[in-house]
């Protein structure tokens, strides 16, 4: 059997040194591999499995191959177990003997007890097989996870030594008795659960959540009993005694992996908002709990974060049993799974309470909140109706920084967690990225918290890190008693480039966790990763905590995806717009009264796209020249649309190393259209290096002090050939840029109709091909759309597309009382739900060179859902450019000041521009939000005077 030293000696010296740094091991000599191995192995309290789990999967596979072990699979825990597996004769003898519970397994078919130790891989496979049986027999909805969890716990309690879990197993709950009870296995399981709960108060209400015999009342007893017999036989072949498992934490990790995988596959259930195990381990690493601490999760879901804290303490050489663990959860299903999760992970002392932490927080007998040393949570994003109706009279004074809006409870959870800390405590909350920059009441709360010095750090994550939502997530670290030197500073950490894109979500690897933890501990600047920022600078940025605002994206990655951004648009004589010259942000919000010309501005950009495709049709569709210039029919001025677009190898290079492409589309006297004034500039480190201008005489090339004209038809010199090549690339970019403009004006009635299957997968303007567009998304995209829709449509469990003859039909499934599922077609869904679906699909389809225009995304959608869609579109703007028009005060307050363009209408002419300096100053001083201003007076652009009122 290879020793830990043998395994470590196979690693390169650099990898060994990184491991040592990861676990804080002092190295007297970094130059010699043997010295590093000695230091790592002699470090007190450092488990050998922790060393291997810090390696990448490809490194673990290479170690397995070098030692002649099976290197198949992508489960990191299973690879570690193979490397650590004891193959000695003594272990073989112990395995043959087995435990009393394992011997009972021989009563059932398929048992393999005694044939080697059980890995996490094997347990997860068994649990997923059980989930498949339940789905096929009962449909995708129902308490399948709890059913499997209860069976798993029953088997574990039977197989393990009583001293392991301190739970008494009565005769009625013995696995052999359950197995022998066919055909009445349903009643036997119910009797076992009742007997266990009566004998053991720690199980009260946990096992009885599942009514195994309930199906007999619906006339399906025979089929249900047959299914349960199959499940019992399946679990009979899975020995779960202490001596059967590879490591003590094998079963607990397997259960967490199963919950994560099922949530990923089904996208349903109370745990779908939970963090992945990697994120949970990161949060525990950053909070660094130690023995004897009180730890709390106010929205604990399945208890993943509490388990991660206990595991962290144990890996540091501490006793997990010394921790006081407490969670609160309002979902009955999630509460049940959390209780079982604690038992399977050896944490029977953990207290998981049922209830709403915001409305009914855990309090001591004195009526005060129970305070904790560490508080961490991943509460539901953007929870509407979170308890604002009782918050003003909160007896615990939790909302001292301000009441969050009713439509979004993110800051309610954040303030509750802060109030639940001891004076020296620390908290971590996983939140939607919008928490960092949304305006209105949330900005005021941020300002007060910043001035009070509670924010320690803000960490930005890669997109798609979480399976549960279509929006980007961030981690907020805060404390009540921040050290004086950094009281007025916040550490920003950009982990968005550390996660690797997996099959369905970004992943955090151990090296990412190590980098982030090291940056947090040092609380100092790390180029491209971390920056310590003074509150004064944050105040100048409108108290925004958006990570990318403070950390330079760094050099673009080699081979990165091309990116494009619309930076400036100039219009002349386009419908009601006589003249406009505005800068566009990656995310732009156009606001103004009805009839002020917002749609005309949006249509001008679409018109540029249509001209690039077919100029004659573009003009004809708008009623000819008179339709385009209909507000100035007597004028001889010609219509012109001028755009300024940047293109770069990657998003991060758009501010430093990019091609700036400017051109205009101008109508000629004969009714035709032409591209004019085309200029391409190459910028390096934000400075112009090369300029190429296309003129009637030829190309004008400027490089520094040199200027030369390449006449049409002449062969360019070797020096100029690169410039010609740049112009040719830019010319292609021009057409691509214009054709990548997408406008969404969804029509609910059109979306409800059966749709003909076509090869056009891009969502069209009205949404008439929504079924085709949704079906074209990959599994990852469909999962993100479903996760977002589940926050808009209660109990939505599935969206699918069915073929009927030559038509495609959208189908929606919604959970009902008793585990039943109701199926709806698109014709039965509300307009708001269909519009939300269309916007989500459009955001998923967005590419790096696209300009996505959505007019009034809030129509027919409730406030909480509109905020979610805003966050989704905000995240999409990190890939391309997004322009929305809106009348919603809530969405306006969520936008940053520099993202807002105001549209006004006076004397038959539309004017467009940024908010006037006077109104900007009012907003910056915190006297009013932009939305509050809009309610009290018209928003004005620079230079526009308020109308006088005659009294």
UniProtKB/TrEMBL annotation:
PANTHER family xrefs: SLR6095 PROTEIN (PTHR42933), TYPE I RESTRICTION ENZYME MJAVIII METHYLASE SUBUNIT (PTHR42933:SF3)
The EC number(s) this enzyme carries: 2.1.1.72
Chain residue ranges for the region called Disordered: 90-116
Domain of life the protein comes from: Bacteria
Keywords tagged on the record: Methyltransferase, Restriction system, S-adenosyl-L-methionine, Transferase
Pfam families attached to this UniProt entry: AAA_15, AAA_21, N6_Mtase, SAP
Protein name: site-specific DNA-methyltransferase (adenine-specific)
GO biological process: DNA restriction-modification system; methylation
Keyword Transferase: yes
Family: Belongs to the N(4)/N(6)-methyltransferase family.
GO molecular function, one term: site-specific DNA-methyltransferase (adenine-specific) activity
Organismal lineage: Bacteria, Pseudomonadati, Myxococcota, Polyangia, Polyangiales
Enzyme class: transferase
Record carries keyword S-adenosyl-L-methionine: yes
InterPro entries (alphabetical): AAA_GajA/Old/RecF-like (IPR041685), ATPase_AAA_core (IPR003959), DNA_Adenine_Mtase (IPR051537), DNA_methylase_A-5 (IPR003356), P-loop_NTPase (IPR027417), SAM-dependent_MTases_sf (IPR029063), SAP_dom (IPR003034), SAP_dom_sf (IPR036361)
Catalytic activity: a 2'-deoxyadenosine in DNA + S-adenosyl-L-methionine = an N(6)-methyl-2'-deoxyadenosine in DNA + S-adenosyl-L-homocysteine + H(+)
Feature: compositional bias, Low complexity: 94-104
Residues covered by the SAP domain: 52-87
């Amino acid at each position: 059997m290879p020793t830990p030293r043998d395994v470590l000696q196979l690693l390169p010296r650099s990898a060994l040194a990184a491991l040592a740094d990861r676990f804080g091991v002092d190295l007297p000599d970094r130059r010699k591999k043997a010295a590093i191995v000695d230091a790592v192995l002699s470090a007190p309290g450092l488990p050998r499995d922790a060393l291997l789990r810090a390696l990448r999967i490809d490194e673990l596979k290479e170690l397995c191959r070098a030692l002649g072990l099976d290197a198949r699979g992508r489960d990191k825990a299973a690879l570690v177990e193979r490397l650590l597996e004891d193959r000695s004769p003594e272990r073989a003898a112990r395995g043959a003997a087995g435990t009393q519970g394992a011997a009972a397994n021989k009563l059932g078919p398929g048992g393999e007890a005694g044939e080697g130790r059980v890995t996490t891989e094997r347990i997860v496979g068994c649990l997923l097989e059980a989930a498949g049986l339940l789905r096929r027999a009962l449909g995708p909805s129902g308490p399948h996870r709890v059913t499997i969890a209860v069976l798993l716990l029953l088997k574990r309690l039977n197989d393990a030594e009583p001293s392991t879990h301190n739970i008494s197993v009565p005769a009625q709950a013995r696995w052999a008795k359950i197995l022998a009870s066919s055909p009445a296995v349903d009643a036997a399981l119910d009797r076992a659960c009742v007997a266990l709960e009566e004998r053991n108060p720690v199980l009260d209400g946990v096992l009885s959540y599942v009514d195994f015999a309930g199906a007999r009342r619906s006339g399906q007893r025979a089929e249900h009993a047959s299914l349960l017999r199959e499940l019992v036989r399946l679990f009979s072949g899975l020995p779960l005694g202490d001596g059967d498992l590879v490591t003590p934490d094998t079963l607990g990790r397997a259960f967490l992996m199963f919950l994560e995988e099922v949530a990923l596959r089904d996208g349903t259930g109370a745990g779908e908002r939970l963090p992945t195990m990697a994120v949970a381990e990161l949060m525990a690493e950053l909070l660094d709990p130690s023995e004897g601490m009180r730890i709390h999760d106010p929205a604990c879901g399945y208890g993943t974060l509490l388990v991660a804290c206990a595991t962290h303490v144990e890996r540091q050489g501490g006793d997990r049993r010394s921790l006081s663990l407490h969670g609160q959860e309002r979902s009955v299903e999630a509460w049940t799974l959390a209780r079982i999760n604690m038992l399977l992970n050896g944490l029977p002392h953990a207290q998981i309470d049922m209830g709403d932490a915001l409305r009914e927080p855990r309090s001591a007998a004195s009526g005060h909140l129970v305070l904790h040393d560490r508080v961490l949570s991943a509460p539901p994003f953007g929870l509407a109706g979170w308890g604002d109706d009782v918050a003003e009279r909160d007896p615990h004074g939790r909302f001292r920084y301000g009441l969050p809006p009713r439509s979004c409870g993110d800051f309610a959870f954040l303030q509750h967690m802060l109030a639940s800390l001891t004076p020296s405590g620390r908290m971590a909350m996983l939140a939607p990225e919008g928490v960092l920059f949304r305006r209105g009441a949330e900005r005021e709360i941020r300002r007060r918290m910043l001035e009070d010095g509670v924010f320690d750090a803000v960490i930005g994550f890669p997109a798609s890190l979480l399976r549960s939502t279509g929006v980007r997530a961030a981690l907020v670290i805060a404390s009540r008693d921040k050290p004086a030197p950094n009281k007025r500073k916040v550490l920003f950490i950009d982990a968005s480039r550390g996660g690797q894109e997996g099959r369905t979500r970004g992943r955090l690897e151990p090296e990412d966790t190590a980098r982030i933890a090291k940056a947090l501990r040092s609380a100092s600047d790390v180029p491209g990763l971390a920056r310590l920022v003074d509150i004064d600078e944050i105040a100048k940025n409108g108290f925004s905590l958006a990570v990318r605002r403070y950390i330079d994206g760094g050099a673009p990655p080699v081979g990165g995806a091309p990116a494009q951004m619309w930076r400036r648009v100039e219009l002349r004589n386009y419908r009601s717009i006589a003249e406009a010259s505005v800068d566009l942000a990656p995310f732009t919000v156009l606001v103004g009264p009805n009839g002020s010309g917002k749609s005309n501005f949006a249509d001008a950009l679409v018109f540029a796209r249509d001209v690039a495709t077919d100029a004659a049709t573009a003009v004809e569709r708008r009623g000819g020249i008179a339709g385009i210039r209909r507000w100035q029919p007597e004028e001889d001025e010609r219509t012109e649309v001028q755009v300024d677009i940047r293109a770069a190898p990657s998003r991060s290079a758009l501010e430093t190393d990019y091609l700036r492409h400017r051109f205009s589309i101008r109508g000629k006297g004969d009714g035709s259209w032409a591209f004019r004034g085309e200029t391409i500039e190459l910028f390096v480190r934000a400075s112009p290096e090369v300029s190429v201008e296309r003129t009637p005489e030829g190309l004008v090339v400027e490089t520094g002090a040199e200027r030369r004209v390449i006449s049409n038809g002449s062969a360019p010199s070797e020096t100029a050939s690169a410039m010609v090549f740049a112009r040719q690339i830019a010319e292609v970019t021009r057409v691509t840029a214009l054709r990548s403009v997408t406008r969404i004006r969804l029509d609910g009635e059109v979306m409800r109709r059966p749709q003909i299957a076509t090869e056009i997968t891009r969502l069209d303007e009205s949404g008439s091909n929504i079924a085709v567009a949704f079906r074209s998304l990959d599994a990852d995209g469909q999962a993100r759309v479903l996760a977002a829709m589940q926050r808009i449509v209660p109990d939505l469990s599935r969206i699918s597309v069915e073929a009927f003859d030559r038509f495609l039909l959208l189908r929606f499934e919604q959970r009902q009382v008793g585990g039943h599922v109701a199926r709806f077609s698109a014709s039965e869904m509300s307009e708001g739900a269909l519009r939300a679906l269309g916007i989500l699909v459009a955001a998923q389809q967005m590419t790096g060179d696209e300009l996505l225009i959505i007019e009034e995304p809030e129509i027919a959608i409730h406030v909480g859902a509109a905020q979610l869609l805003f966050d989704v579109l905000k995240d999409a703007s990190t890939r391309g450019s997004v322009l929305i028009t809106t009348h919603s005060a809530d969405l306006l307050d969520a936008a940053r000041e520099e993202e807002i363009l105001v549209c006004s209408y006076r004397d038959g002419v539309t004017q467009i521009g940024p908010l006037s300096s006077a109104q900007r100053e009012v907003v910056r001083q915190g006297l009013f939000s932009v939305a509050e201003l809009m309610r009290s007076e018209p928003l004005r652009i620079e230079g526009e005077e308020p109308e006088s009122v005659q009294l």
